[in-house]
Specification:
The protein is an alpha/beta fold. It has 8 helices and 7 strands, in the order αβαβαβααβαααβββ. The chain starts with a helix and ends with a strand.
Length: 182
């Protein structure tokens, strides 16, 4: 572990609503503390909890520019919509994205979620403007970014430009079923 901590940095990108509920539960907090205790440089790249992927890609670009003075490559862990935001960043800001050595997705919404289709109209009308702590209202676009047809079209347009290794973490329950995000 010590050699890896000297060779790589680690960053975490949370998902939808994470900024809104950070005071109650922060994704990756335990892992971040454990990695820092083992000597890793760890960054938490907060994105807008109800931001579109384009908006969050710009925010990620700011985070990456702020850490660019460290020449060690980054291993980025992205949770749920955080993967969608990170992928958008990698396409829109390829110079900054060169810092990434690998992406590890935890329940990443690479191909979207059927829930985004089912809930979009209700979310746009009620959920997006609903006041939540620590985050600005949404527009509804944040759910559009998660719609399966939008994700598949994105991969068709940009998939070849994603050249860093990507790994997906999945889990298995006690009955042998794969547990994860659709």
């Amino acid at each position: 572990v010590e050699g890896l901590a000297q060779r790589y940095r680690v960053a975490f990108v949370p998902g939808l609503f994470s900024e809104c509920f950070e005071d109650f539960a922060r994704p990756f907090a335990d892992a971040q503390a454990d990695l820092q205790a083992k000597g890793f440089t760890v960054d938490y790249f907060q994105v807008a909890g109800r931001g579109s992927s384009a908006k969050n890609a710009a925010r990620l670009a700011e985070h990456f520019r702020a850490t660019a003075s460290d020449a060690r490559p980054l291993i980025v862990f992205a949770y749920s919509k955080g993967l969608v935001d990170l992928l958008e960043f990698m396409v829109r800001y390829p110079d900054e994205a060169r810092q990434i050595a690998a992406v590890v997705t935890v329940a990443g919404a690479a191909n979207g979620s059927p829930l985004a289709d089912q809930m979009h109209a209700v979310y746009r009308a009620v959920g997006a403007p609903f006041p939540l702590p620590n985050c600005a209202p949404g527009t509804g676009e944040e759910l559009v970014d998660l719609q399966p047809d939008v994700r598949i079209a994105w991969w068709q347009r940009h998939g070849e430009s994603i050249t860093v290794p990507m790994f997906a973490m999945v889990a298995e329950d006690d009955r042998g079923r794969i547990v994860g995000y659709q």
